[in-house]
Amino acid sequence: MAMRYETPATTKEAATLMAKAKGSAFLLAGGTDLLVRMKSGMIEPDLVVDIKHIAATQSIKKSASGFRIGAAVPAAAMGEHPALKKAWPGVVEAANLIGSDQIQSRCTIVGNLCNASPAADSVPALIAAGAKAAIVGPKGRRTVPVEKIVTGPGTMSLKKGEVIEAITLPKRPPKSGDAFLRFIPRTEMDIAVVSAGVSLTLDNKRVVKKARVALGAVAPTVVLVPAAARAIVGSKLTDDVLEKLAAACSAACSPIDDKRGTVEFRTEVAGVLARRAAKIAYQRAGGG
Amino acid sequence: MAHDPSYTNQEFKVIGTRPPRPDGLDKVTGRAKFGADAFAPGQLVGLILRSPHPHAQIRKIDTSKAEKLQGVKAVITSADMPDLTNGNRNMLDILENCMARGRALYDGHAVAAVAAIDMPTARKALKLIKVGYEILPHVTDVDEAMKPDAPIVQPYVRTTGVEPKPKKASNVSQVTQFGHGDVEAGFKEADVIIEKSYKTEQTHQGYIEPHACLASVGPDGQGELWVTTQGHFAFREVCAKLLGMEVAKLKVTASEIGGGFGGKTHVWMEPVALALSRKANRPVKLVMSREEVFRSTGPTCSTSVDVKIGAKKDGTITAATATLRYQNGAFPAIWAMLGAMTSYACYNLKNVKTVGYDVLVNRPKVTAYRAPSAPMAAFAVESTIDQVAEAIGMSPIDFRIKNAAKEGTRASYGPKYGPIGIGPTLEAAKNHPHMRARLGKNQGRGMACGFWFNFGGQTCTDLNIGVDGTVTLTVGTVDVGGSRASLSLIAAEELGIAYERVKCNIADTGSLGHNDMTEGSRGTFSSGMATIFAARDVIEVLRERAAKTWEIPVEDVVWEGGQAVAKGKAHGNLTPLTLSDLAAASPNSGGPIAGHNEVVADGAGVSFASHICDIEVDPETGATKVIRYTVIQDAGKAIHPDYVEGQFQGGAVQGIGWALNEEYVYGEDGRLQNPGFLDYRIPVCSDLPYIDTQILEIPNPNHPYGIRGVGETSIVPPLAAIGNAVSNAAGVRMTHVPMSPPRILKAIKSEQAELAAG
């Protein structure tokens, strides 16, 4: 049986194709996960819907309400967008850690999200940033916080036929900064053993006013850690506060022992990375 | 003609220069033909079905549905590969490793194979083969496998090397012992004794080119095999034996090779491809996936080693022992024995004893990996050496220099050394600027020494002069590291011509006599020797032709600067005859001009190296960074220094990967968890500093040019050098390789906890 390959011109059409699909259907953007899985025989799709021909998925748009990053925008394009880099350096550095230079020219943050891995590089940074997914389905549109998309390893809350058209990032208040760090045993071409994304907004006295902290690869999904945010809000990130942040992060971990790392290691290093990422974010926010 | 292999301190014109390698252009443009790049009319796609279980009785294999699938041309099981080994258990083991015979012995063991018209059909056919497994208890850890109640991997194995001969099957296939003196008495003389246990995990050679071949066998009993291999003559003999073919009727051609490092010295699926082709009566191409390479081809051993070294306060080692337990995978081999032989080869010891235990487990059959077995033994010994030096308050380098083996030393594995390079490499290390460079915060420096035997073996080489005076050099040792360039330099040197006028080819098995594999760092040593001798034969012919042309006695003709020169006052006016002149005249002066040599190249010179490295450790995450790395090694004589340096660097890099991250991870279920380059972490370029090299040249007395093999020794010191550097940086002794971030962080945390507890 031959595989069907479709290139719809609108997200609505893509959603309709996916909704009507019989058998296994997959969306294709960069293909850096999908094609690998197809070639290795892990999946044998009946339908592949390529969303790269949809205008709404192809660009990064800046507006009064923030940024809108199309689902087919490669991570490399994010790194080449000066306004996005200035507003969300942590999100961009996370997206630019996926794979290698070659992968960067194809891979997308929506694909990274929909691969539904707890170790996805861009996702903790997106969640820390308060990013939302703009979803088009057979019955219309809806917008969902990124942390509500993935429900477990390989599973998502998206309904049959629903397609993420773009990721939106909120408008950045002044004195804000974000950062992302991941731990890999090598320097590149690897998958996070642990990762941490931190986004902060300071008041005029360089006190943390708002914070979001998210951890990757320490639980079945990327986790938002409100306790970690609470630990630093109202502070100037002094050492004792950073220790509390690290402790809150370690406490939020429920990792597994696997080929990439141990429970012990992930729990410990989650705190270390969150601490280091918070310091970078604080500096970027003008906290010095 | 008999030739003298002794070293002569000849003066060189082109040896030691660095011309471009002849295979370089094709390799960088993608034109070179590797194992998967051959095509034959009507070729089929071969695929192998592999056991998902580490140990299982195969109750039944039903291939009927696969056979009925349209496009499937052959399905085979062990029934199609009958035992023709005539009681030769080693050969039967090879056959059984290629295709399980009643029992699957490891995750990835082949149980059946198909040949079909295309890949989708072959994949579908594999899914249609139904195998009835009865799962058996398994063991994958070397220490567990030695326990009395461990599941037995090979019921036929009785431990050799122990008295009385055991009656019961055991996972210990052999016990071997080396050494001399009285270690108990030696330890009594010691002021300091350090005793420690170490573990190293299993690693794969990680060659980038997977195993691949194109096999064709006709009903007339003739066959051809195109294959990526380190030794096509040996492949021919093994395949012919296993398939009941005549050696001469199977022509094996070695493709370009995308890395071997020992892993391509052994047949894994080539006999299966031939059996498929024979059954289908069509050529069959079989190319392994990376997952298959990891699960079913020759990794090196995981090990568990105990070391005890005693020394006097003045730095003299009084006694040293090592107990080495090496797992061989599911088939008996000699890897612990090699570990036991190499452990203390760098040192001049009065009392030394090493015992090796070769152990079977439910993992893939271990094969050679670059100086096989030596790196793990060196890790244990050299780590302990550092601790002894520290305990007596000597610098690690001075302690090693004081105890280094030298000419006349009786090696711990038996023989007396000739001129050797351990002392000089240590002195060079001591004087190297690296040793005095400042270290930053959280950085540590380590050093270690390494040894490898090297090998010579059977070699057979042709040298033919073309009609235009260019030279065709035909060798049978596969070029894995630039040997075509080195051998061309040697031919050019002997004949007195330019490097560019020599073309070196690797002959197929139908075109030249037997050559041993390119293993044991023998390629340039042995084929170099045969090339020198073949060239000298040619020079004899050239002198005769010149003498004939001039009508003077051959004794009056000498070969100088690439031409025949008439010596003596009587012949003063004769214009010298160049190689081109003589070649052009050859059709009428006696026909083709050719030289040939076959030799058993004995006397491969032993090889030593000393490495220095600096590592930075992140004390909060256990992450490591290699800051600086220096390799100092004796090459005997560097024929083409670029490729000698390349070997030094390559071995160091593989050692760095092994030391820090590479490891086979088996689950509780006995399945390999990381059969891919994502989670089996070889270093990427950005992980590495420039690897600095220093070539020493202490001539091997048993080679005309003084050559020693250089390919392997460079992987021996890194595990220990890095272990010593990490231990110095982290402030805690690391005893388990790879020193991955979780292991380092755990060691740091336990050390901190111990210090806190006082």
Element layout with pairings:
The complex is a heterodimer of chains A (288) and B (758).
Chain A: E1 4-6, H1 11-20, E2 25-28, H2 34-39, E3 47-50, E4 60-63, E5 66-70, H3 75-79, H4 82-87, H5 89-95, H6 101-104, H7 109-114, H8 122-129, E6 132-137, E7 140-145, E8 150-152, E9 155-156, E10 163-170, E11 176-183, E12 194-202, E13 208-216, E14 223-224, H9 226-232, H10 239-251, H11 263-284
Parallel strand pairs in A: 1-3, 2-3
Antiparallel strand pairs in A: 4-5, 5-10, 6-7, 6-10, 8-9, 11-12, 12-13, 13-14
Chain B: H1 24-29, E1 44-50, E2 56-62, H2 64-68, E3 72-76, H3 89-98, E4 103-104, E5 110-116, H4 119-128, E6 130-135, H5 142-145, E7 172-180, H6 183-189, E8 192-200, E9 212-217, E10 223-227, H7 232-243, E11 250-254, H8 270-280, E12 284-287, H9 290-296, E13 303-311, E14 317-327, H10 335-342, E15 352-359, H11 374-392, H12 396-403, H13 422-431, H14 433-436, E16 443-452, E17 457-465, E18 471-475, H15 483-495, E19 502-506, H16 523-550, E20 557-560, E21 563-566, E22 577-578, H17 579-589, E23 593-601, E24 607-617, E25 624-634, H18 641-660, E26 691-696, H19 718-730, E27 736-737, H20 741-757
Describe this structure in words.
The complex is a heterodimer of chains A (288) and B (758). Chain A is an alpha+beta fold and 288 residues long. Chain A is 33% helix and 25% strand. Chain A folds into two domains: 1-51 and 63-169, Uridine Diphospho-n-acetylenolpyruvylglucosamine Reductase, domain 3; 176-284, Enolase-like, domain 1. The longest helix of chain A is centred in the C-terminal third of the chain and has 22 residues, at 263-284. Chain A starts with a strand and ends with a helix. In chain A, 50% of the residues are buried. Chain B has 758 residues and is α+β, with helices and mostly antiparallel strands. Chain B contains 20 helices and 27 strands. At the A-B interface, helix 11 of A face helix 20 of B.
